[in-house]
Amino acid sequence: MPQVSANPEEMRRFAKALDEIAEVLRQKRMKTSRSFENLHHTWRDAKYAQFEKTFSSTLQDLDGFLKSAQKYSEFLRTKAAKLDRYMKR
Amino acid sequence: MDAANLGSLEGLQDLDQAFGRFQVAAKACLEAAGNRLGAQLRQLHERREEAQRQVRACQRAVRESDEETHDDAVRSLLEAEERLREVHRWCRSAEESAQSYRAAARRFEKLIEADLPRTQLRLRATREEAAAYLSVQLDGDVAITTGARASASGAPAPAVVEPVAADPLVKFPLPPGFRWVSVDHITRRDDLREDEGFPKTSENEMRRGFGTLRRQVLPFLARNPGADAEVFRELDGYTEDRKPKARQKTYEAFFGAQPIILAGPLSDGTFSVTSGRHRIKVARDMGWSAVPARVTGKPGGYP
Questions:
Q1: Phi/psi at A4 (5° precision)
Q2: Which of A9, A58, A62, A76 is most buried by its number of CB atoms within 10 A?
Q3: What single DSSP character describes residue A40?
């Protein structure tokens, strides 16, 4: 049975927190990517290729999280707006 | 009001319908009460006319009376006049009451003709807003979880790809250490080659095993978390199953010493098959959306 039990302000607060953490992660990810590119100047053995593959996969996971975080945030804000309209009735 | 709290969306719909039914019933009730009141007033008026006729008859009798009948005629006239006054009082009282009722009835009528439909409209708008809130969904691809999860020990745990949530199969809980993995997230590179057969267990027997898993083992595990091979052995013994060890064998095949073991995820997000290629083929052929598997770390991962 569908129910409605939620606080739009709390939803927006969490969406904001999510945006903030995503922004920090986005910046750190860019910085780490740049550092990783430099790493190859000094690490040239066979293990590097193996590490690069694993590290790239992890970066992809992180990108997936950032994309999800953005969608979660949009989702929460849309929900909160709908909830506002419901509560004004 | 900071938060919304609506117990049931259907409740609003039920209330709307109840208002509709109330409106119809209230109109019928008002109409019946109005008819009844009119009938009673008419009866009182008829009685007043009758009392007036009696008074006139008594007045005539007094005028036509002689000395002998005069006193009786006057007494009858006085009694008739008293009855007429009594009926007048009743009529006045009834008309006052009727007027008061009609005023209340008009207010009530306005309520059911105007206020109630307005309330229903508002209720419907509220329901639509609540439904709009509930209908906002996350995009499907966001629900897929990727990436390493930290285990309790702090070491990275293998990535998990959730199976198709719509399949009721994946709602069955699995023994500790196992999870449902979507067959779409198992790499096709490990598929059986065409020249590979089923040397240990025949394909038909495997299919029967999947059937037993779905129909008997998983439902039993859901009702009895923690049940192990020993429990299934006893269970097989208690029934007159023609294959006495069907459930125990099925349990052991999926959750025993040689379960389906997957490793990964690979760079494309899929899992490689360490053990269970034949079972995965049968699962795909039978249309299973997911298989229960043990998932280990990344193959060829660093270091």
A1: -125, 115
A2: A76
A3: T
Among B35, B26, B82, which Cα is nearest to B54's? B82
**Residue range of the domain that includes A58:** 8-88
Report if residue B301 sits inside a domain: no
Pairing assessment for the beta strands A4-6 and B4-6 based on DSSP bridges: antiparallel
ipTM, two decimals, is: 0.74
Contact in structure between B147 and A66 (CB atoms under 8 Å): no
Q: How do residues B146-191 score in pLDDT, each as one tens digit?
A: 333 333 333 333 334 444 455 778 888 898 889 999 888 898 888 8
The answer to whether position B64 is within a domain reads yes
Quick check: B1 pLDDT over 70? Answer: no
Task: Report d(CA B222, CA B139) in Å as an integer.
Answer: 30
Interval B63-73 mean pLDDT = 92
Assess whether pLDDT exceeds 70 at residue A87: yes
Q: Does B129 touch chain A (CB under 8 A)?
A: yes
Which chain A residues have a beta carbon less than 8 Å from that of B263? none
Q: Is B6 on the interface with A (CB under 8 A)?
A: yes
How does DSSP classify residue B271?
Answer: B
Put simply, whether the predicted model's pTM sits higher than 0.80 gets the answer no
Check whether residue B233 and residue B126 sit in a common domain: no
Of B4, B9, B129, the CB nearest to A2: B9
Do B41 and B73 belong together in one domain?
yes
Tell me if A2 is assigned to some domain: no
- Give the mean pLDDT of chain B: 82
Domain that holds residue B104: 9-135
